[in-house]
Write a structure and sequence with these properties.
single chain, alpha/beta, Amidase signature (AS) enzymes, 2 domains, eight-stranded mixed beta sheet, three-stranded mixed beta sheet, 11 strands
């Protein structure tokens, strides 16, 4: 048994009791990452010196603490940061060949993780500016699901998911503007949580149009996801302590209908969703059928807001010329919109979100598939010759996740199913706003009934 077999909470406990050191744990992950990264594509950058420096500081804090048990919940644990987030003194490239930035300040979420005593092993792979739902990087190896290295890890937090699924970190920070945590969680057999809008700061940069993007954790277990959520939200072990709360009989809304028209979900996807619905019924919850939460006529509105976000990225002409075709196409769509059109799209999205929240007010939780398809082959969604076609394929791949970025609700993907070929399939649970504790407690009950953390890919 290696150190990477321990959960993040087990690692933190062992560091506090000095059974292992943070330096020992960090060296273990650095060795694995340097050895395996080329094949799995988890990291865009490894920060050996900084990681060991932070680990040594974590060990000193343990030695000097009067009561080490009062140190932060993930003190000394390795937590990589997505390459979309600014990290002071560390190269940040936003998944693109056209930018190389060494920030002088941290994004707020990075500062929160530093305050929580975590160790920055490196920056995880992301596609250019996090725009597509696959992670096929132009600045390093493509992120591949460790369960089948011919298939992609999903995106845009694909590198973060691979780091956890391949045993190169116990937990990782991700971000999600249309499914970018939940999609790779499903592809890589992980727990991936998108929290309520505003729970974790996106600062210091302002939120984009529609306020779609949020930060959240990727983990092998619900408890580890709860722990990292607490660190990122600067609430320490709050969510871990809530996992044992009673979960009364809930009203759960079933929705297997994709928002994107003419999308036919894979039978394995529907089987996972239906089986989880049956499990929830057996646990005493009442399931009711729901229509799609956000109507199909809102898809063009979401697309305008997404394109407007791409257009807001400050780039000069030479940098624009070096962008991927999909990024240029999205920017051109966004730049073609007048300011009042962007404002109108954001307003329409907000109205649709309020309607969706009212329409589902009678249920505590919504359950949907996470994806419509199994993990896509590497290159199966990307089409540089036809970026519009690329975008359409992405919509068909993930028609269930973006509606909950529009509503701002918390949503989690759980790895409840594996195909006969060994591919993971996630199911999405969506909670009411600000009810992460209920969503996580229910997820923990599902994990207890259908445990998954002992499953490992061959690269483990």
């Amino acid at each position: 048994m290696g150190l990477h077999d321990l959960t993040a909470l087990e690692q933190a406990s062992a560091i506090r009791t000095r059974e292992i050191s943070a330096v020992e744990l960090t060296r273990h992950y650095l060795e694995r990452a340097h050895r395996l990264n080329e094949s799995v594509g988890a990291y865009a950058l490894l920060c050996d010196d900084l990681a060991l420096e932070q680990a040594a500081a974590a060990d000193r804090a343990v030695a000097q603490a009067e009561d080490p048990s009062r140190l932060p919940v993930l003190h000394g644990v390795v937590v990589p940061v997505k390459d979309l987030n600014q990290t002071a003194g560390v190269l940040t490239r936003f998944g693109t060949t056209v930018l190389e930035l060494v920030p002088t300040t941290d994004d707020d979420v990075v500062a929160a993780m530093r305050s929580g005593g975590t160790v920055l092993l490196g920056k995880t792979t992301t596609p250019e500016f996090g725009l597509p739902c696959y992670t096929e990087s132009d600045i390093g190896p493509h992120a591949r699901t460790p369960w089948d290295l011919t298939r992609g890890a999903g995106g845009s937090s694909g590198g973060a998911a691979v780091a956890v699924a391949a045993g190169l970190a116990a937990v990782a920070q991700g971000s999600d503007g249309g499914g970018s945590i939940r999609i790779p969680a499903s592809c890589c057999g992980l727990v991936g949580l998108k929290p309520t809008r505003g729970l974790i700061s996106n600062g210091p940069l302002p939120d984009g149009p529609g306020r779609l993007a949020v930060m959240g954790p990727l983990a092998r277990t619900v408890a580890d996801a709860a722990a990292l959520l607490g660190v990122m939200a600067e609430r320490d072990d709050t969510y871990v302590r809530m996992l044992d709360a009673d979960v009364p009989s809930l009203v759960i809304g079933r929705c297997g209908i994709p928002v994107v028209a003419d999308t036919v979900p894979d039978p394995e996807v529907l089987a996972a969703w239906e089986d989880t619905c049956l499990l929830l019924e057996s646990m005493g919850h009442r399931l009711v059928d729901l229509d799609v939460p956000v109507s199909i006529d809102q898809i063009p509105v979401f697309e305008r807001v997404w394109a407007a976000g791409a257009a807001r990225i400050p780039l000069n002409d030479a940098q624009v010329a070096g962008l991927r075709p999909l990024t240029r196409w999205l920017r051109e769509r966004g730049l073609a919109l007048a300011a009042h059109e962007v404002e109108e799209a954001a307003r329409l999205m907000e109205e649709a979100s309020h309607r969706a929240l009212r329409a589902t007010a009678h249920v505590d939780i919504v359950i949907t598939p996470t994806l419509a398809q199994l993990p896509a082959p590497v290159g199966g969604l990307r089409d540089d010759d036809d970026p519009a076609g690329d975008f359409e394929m992405q919509k068909a791949f993930t028609p269930y996740t973006a509606p909950y970025n529009m509503t701002g609700q918390p949503a989690v993907s759980l790895p409840v199913h594996w195909t006969a070929a060994g591919l993971p399939v996630g199911v999405q649970l969506v909670g009411r706003p600000h009810r992460e504790a209920q969503l996580l407690a229910l997820s923990a009950r599902i994990e207890h009934a259908r445990p998954w953390a002992s499953r490992h890919p061959e690269v483990w």
